[in-house]
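note to self: dont lose this again. the chain is below, predicted strucutre after it. 146 aa total, dont forget to put it in the shared folder this time
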Amino acid sequence: MKKYGKFIALTVLILGMLIWLGTSSMKDTQTYYKTIAELAQLGPGAARQRVRVGGDVEKGSIIRKADLVEFTLAQDQRRLKVSYDGKDPLPDTFRDGAQALADGKMGTDGVFHANKIQAKCASKYAAKPGQAPAGLKPVTNTRGTI
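---
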C-alpha cells in the first residue's frame, strides 16, 4: 500500500506542476484585439496591456530606419503611429493601403510599439464575383458548367 501512496502523490505533484506551468505561461501570450478607437479609450492602461490592433497602412507613411520600421495605421478616420522593431522580416504583402495587424504595447509617447506585424492578403488576389480565380478554368459536365 505504501508504494501506491507514493506513486499517487508523485502523479498528483507532476500533474499539478504541469497545470501550473500551462496556466502561468498562457497569461504571457494572451493578446486582445482592439480597434484604434478602443485602444485610445484604454488611456494609460494600454501601456500595461499587450494588444493587437488593425487597420489600413496609410499611403506614404512607411519609413524604414535600419532595423526600425515606422508607419501609420488608419481606421474609421482615426490614425495610429506604429513603430516595429521585431526580429521577423515584414510580410511581402505589407505595403501602402494593405490591411495590417500590429501586435505589441502602446508606449507612453503615444506610439504603438509592435513586435509582430501581419499583413492581410490584398483584395487583388480575390476573384471578382462570378469569375473563376486566376489560372482555373470552369469545369463542365453533362449538366452544364460548374
